[in-house]
Fold this sequence. Notes:
By secondary structure, this protein is mainly alpha-helical. The chain has four helices and two strands, in the order ααββαα. It has helices spanning 3-19, 24-40, 59-66, 106-111; strands spanning 43-44, 50-51. A two-stranded antiparallel sheet has the order 1-2. A hairpin with a 5-residue loop joins strand 1 and strand 2 (50-51). The radius of gyration is 23 Å and the shape is flat. The model has no long low-confidence stretch (mean pLDDT 81).
Amino acid sequence: xxxxxxxxxxxxxxxxxxxxxxxxxxxxxxxxxxxxxxxxxxxxxxxxxxxxxxxxxxxxxxxxxxxxxxxxxxxxxxxxxxxxxxxxxxxxxxxxxxxxxxxxxxxxxxxx
Length: 112
């Protein structure tokens, strides 16, 4: 995006924020709330609907469990396997970064 277009978008957003009395702090708080809500989701379906497991189950959970699907099927697993490590590669100086030429083959990983 060129600088003039970026400045135009920023100016537009600033005017709209002033029009609706929205502060940057309010936007930051809203983003933080969204992140907390997304991280609190314990169950998610294929359409992106989520539920934290608290309170009354939403209709998509009721429908799925009534049809015989287990609730555990929709569980969001956040475990990270610490034993799987990616090779440390510094792509900043690689002219082929992002291309197919920059991929590391599995046999190269085991040799390091």
